[in-house]
Amino acid sequence: GLSDARNIGIEHAKGTYITFVDSDDMIDRQYISFLFSEISKFDADISICRYKRFTESQELKHLEKSEESVVYNNMEALKTLLYTPEKIPQSACGKLYKIKMFKDIRYPLGRLNEDIGTTYKLFYNSKKIVYNSSQYYFYYQRMDGIVRSRFSEKSMDAIYFSEEILAFVQKYIPDLVKAAQCYAFAQNIQILIKIPLNNSMYDVYKNEITNNIKKYRLIVALDKNVPLKKRLGAISCFLNLSFIKKMAIVYKRVINNEPI
Q: Containing H/E element for 160?
């Protein structure tokens, strides 16, 4: 499995740095040299670039490149990760790490969305993280891939990981509790998109997601650190579950420009 492969790679790595490239993806010729120059220039523990989605029918062109880099301390990076994961995604890929960051951290086995259960720990243990929006990593958007697959019990891992993040933040970083609640809210919406609402066999999951949305929606709607579009989305969650799902799909298609 993916986590096991990464963990074996971590344990056998001989170098000072490590990066992850999933088997279906591609990288720019300058991917490593760019991330290495960033991590060296700013004396960071992690350097990050953006990824670009592609499918079999698309060519990789019009790639975005930027001359500007943003340097975060660990708290600033975590805040950005939780409030705006569309800017700094949870994905293990598109990042270069100092191998020492994985001293006590491994990817969880047998679970989906394992990145969600790991990246925040790496950020927390970092002193400095550098981010650049240039696109050097190419993410192959498989229509039948793990992230885009139909709902199953394992799909709930994303929600359970978000609750683990919230518990971690409540214990170690109380200033970011609202950010973690916002992230948990977003994960529930993401899974709601996948779950069939007209099938009673999923009622237990629908009820869990509904309760979570009710728990977090007002917090998100009133948090001025949340982007306005997301706050408006949280307000719409005071309506019925079917409407919430439709609005979430529209948000991903129109605002995030993501295929569903």
A: helix 157-172
At 218 the three-state DSSP class reads: helix
Q: What is the pLDDT of residues 86-107, one digit of tens each?
A: 888 889 999 999 999 999 999 9
Say how far apart CA 247 and CA 190 lie, in whole Å: 11
Neighbour-count burial of 172, counting CB atoms closer than 10 A to its CB (0-12 exposed, 13-18 middle, 19+ buried): exposed
- By C-alpha distance, which of 205, 216, 206, 232 is closest to 82? 216
20-67: pLDDT as tens digits: 999 889 999 999 999 999 999 999 999 999 988 888 656 677 788 888
pTM here?
0.88
Q: What would the DSSP string read from start to end of 5-67?
A: HHHHHHHH--SSEEE---TT-EE-TTHHHHHHHHHHHTT-SEEEEEEEEE-TT----S----S
CA geometry: angle at 127 spanning 121 and 128, to 5°? 105
Contacts of 68 (CB under 8 A, 6+ apart): 132, 133
C-alpha–C-alpha distance, residues 19 and 64, integer Å = 21
Query: How many residues make up the chain in this entry?
Result: 260
42 Cα distance to chain centroid: 24
What letter represents residue 71's amino acid? V
* pLDDT tens digits along 179-229: 999 999 999 988 888 887 778 888 898 889 989 999 999 999 999 999 888
The residue among 49, 58, 21 whose CA lies nearest residue 136 is 49
Report d(CA 239, CA 80) in Å as an integer: 28
CB-based contacts of 149, cutoff 8 Å, min separation 6: 155, 194
pLDDT grade for 260, boundaries at 50, 70 and 90: very low
CA torsion sign for 140, 227, 242, 190 is positive
